[in-house]
Amino acid sequence: MACNSAGCKSGCDGYSEDGEKEHESRPTTDCNGDAPVSNSTEPSRNRICVKCKTNETIAASGVGAGLRGDGGRFCADCFKSNLYWKFRFSVTSNDMISPADNVLVAFSGGPSSRVSLHFVSEMQDKAQKNFEASRDRALPVFGVGIAFVDEQSVSAIPHHEFDKAIEQMKLIVSNLAPPLKQFHVVRTESVYSLKPADGRERLKKLIDVITDTTGKEDLLEHMRMLALQKFAIENGYTKIVLGKCTSRIACHVLEATVKFLSNHTRAKS
């Protein structure tokens, strides 16, 4: 058989025994002959979902261009079902939500909190169907409420944009699977057991005391959690679900590490 290689000394013409150019079906190499370089595009089988074997993957469909990991292996439907299974397995295996719980989902309107809201709602919907199908109906179905933390009193965003966002979130909540879920607007200044106007003034004064941006963000995060916890206790909610992505958690860990090292260095000096 002929090889058609630039370094070949056999004097062949680059043809195989069946008369076709062999180099067209063989991968080429770089100038050093080390790493093979493919002459063809990615095989179509690598663009098909590994689960359903029918639809294109998210990356191949162009929805997630350059997406790695599961986005390059699953189509959108299978990716969602796979992610929901992981979420449900984590919740049930660690007893995070019991049938007697009343769950408050913190909803900001962003992608992470929206995913957590839909998954909790889907779990409740399936629990409700199992409850209706069972004869004894011994286990109740956990309740779900949604809370949006309103930070208008300390935010530079115009009020009409907040109002528009709240209306959009109400529409999203109304389209969730039954049973009906209550949507609550929790104001940050509600952490103070005072009149709303007095609470806003106290919160503004507290924010103005802090000069650095990072410190203000940390304080707002703390006040946001206090407002959610206070509302949950006062309204009979037993669990709070936060839709934080791994990137946000990683940023929080890095920030806490840097602050600890900085304070530790100051203490030594």
From TrEMBL:
Keywords: Cytoplasm, tRNA processing
Organism: Cuscuta epithymum
Region (Disordered): 1-43
One BP annotation, GO: tRNA wobble position uridine thiolation
UniProt biased composition (Basic and acidic residues): 18-27
Entry-linked InterPro entries: CTU2 (IPR019407), Rossmann-like_a/b/a_fold (IPR014729)
GO molecular function annotations of the record: sulfurtransferase activity; tRNA binding
Source species, domain of life: Eukaryota
Signal peptide segment: none
Record-given protein name: Cytoplasmic tRNA 2-thiolation protein 2
GO CC aspect terms: cytosol
Transmembrane segments: none
